Amino acid sequence: IRNVINIEDLVQRVLTVTNVLRTAGSVVLLIVGIIVLFIIVNTIRLAVVARAEEIEIMRLVGASDAFIRWPFVFEGALVGLIGALLTLGILAAAADPIRGFMADFFRVLPLQFGSLTRDLVALVLGAGVGLGVLGSWLSVRTYLIR
User: Is the pLDDT of residue 1 over 80?
Assistant: First the structure.
């Protein structure tokens, strides 16, 4: 009976640590996402301002807002993709030390890292391109409203 009580206590502690880490990770992820969005919006805004004369000429000849917007959206997607690839490169370089530390730290738990890499790559690439498109869309939209 004593072992069962200790295991239940251990499970409660692991669940508490997991919930705290999940909450802290979500907060950090939200903050990083807002920072990335801010950087992409400002990068695209600089590109729009640099091409303001070209945009005005396009408007004079009758270009629609969508025709003006899409090149900047693609540029934002490219900026997000490059940022995601840099992130994946850094993660790939730091993967072995992190994997060793995590395996030693969570020696009690049965961990499997099978599909984690594929899911992580898909998540980082999707988030990078998605934030790039969203940031450029917002940046160009605020410029075109004027």
Answer: no
